[in-house]
Structure formats: C-alpha cells, structure tokens
Amino acid sequence: MKKHIPNTITCCNLISGCIATYWALCGVYDVALLFIVIGAVFDFFDGMTARLLHVSSPIGKELDSLADDITFGFAPSAIIFDFLKQNATELPWHYLCYIAFVMAAFSALRLAKFNLDERQAMGFIGLPTPANALFWGALMVGGEELLSSSPYYIYGVIALMLLSCYLLIAEIPMFALKFKSWGWKGNEVKYIFILSCVPLLLLLGVSGLAAIIAWYIILSIITNKRTT
User: How far apart are CA 17 and CA 39, in angstroms?
Assistant: First the structure.
C-alpha cells in the first residue's frame, strides 16, 4: 500500500496543474497561481515521501516529470497565452499569443534533461520549472496592470518569456536550498537568499514572489562567476 503514496501525491500535483490551467484560461490568474503553489507543495512532498518510505521507482520518476510539465510548464504558459490573447486583439498580433506554449515545450525539455543529468544532486543546471512557473504566476497577478500600461508590453512579455525558455535549459549552475549542515560556513548564499526574501514579500506582496525568483537567478549567476 505504501508504495502508492508518493505516486498519489504526484497525481495531486498533476490535478493541481490542470485546475491551474483552467483558471488561467478563464483569466483568473490569482486562482491559477494558487493552484500552481499547491502543486509545488505536492511536488515537494512526493519526493520526500518516496525517500522516507524507500519506495522510489522508475514509474514515479516519469510520472513526476509529466505532472511537473503540466503544473510548471503548461499552466504558466496558459497564463501568458490568456494575457496575450486579451491584449493582442488586432491581427496579425492576435496570433502571437500562441507563442506562449513554447515555454511548455522548453519546460518539458528541462525536465527531461534533469532526469538524465547526474550533476544536479545538490544544485540545478538551468532554472527549475517550479521557480519559472511561480515567477510568471506572480508577475501576472501582481504586475498585470503595470505590464498593460506600456505600449510595448506585448513585446516585453514575449521577450521575457523567451529569456525564461533559455534559462530553463541554459548551462548555468543554480543553487538549491538543500543543506548538508545548518552552519553559516558553506551555506552563506542560501541564508542570504532566504533572509532577503522576507523584505521583498513584505514590500511587494505577490509581485515580491516574482522579484524573489529574479533575485535567485541573479544571485546564482553572481556566485557561479565567483567560483569559476
């Protein structure tokens, strides 16, 4: 019985992604973001549960990637698609909205690479799909009016989306919040990041979540340059 528990949690992640996609296409981005966050919680606990119960399996690994692409690939792509569809109403700009689903494809590629890359045990190579999904969900919830206020917002959103597609598969080492010990030494970057998240959330609200992901990318690049 216990061998089915992690896969059940993974399926809850997938269902959360499906619900998030529905609300994204309805234009209710805050609910879509909520279910992306719920999916991220399930994604965190399915792997932990599999390790605790010693029931990791190849099918669980494949199911996890499928669920992640729905929740962290397709759902945020649907948010961008709906945003562009609502704002790019004139032809030929209307057809630009479909470019949003390119990010779902890059998310799938990112997840496939992660499954085969043995270098990512204690860190990441490229932007993790949950971080990318949270960035876009938070940006569209907290910054929708700001984005729409610029005459070039369509180009900006598309350019930013293409940049995130690149970051998903880029050979850029990014730290993970995994601790071998709780001391300051060796964990400086992680603690600095965690402590800096608090004021960003307090000052910016939901938009602060997008700022946190952007700060995570910048901090990863800075620390990587210092170590190379």
Answer: 6
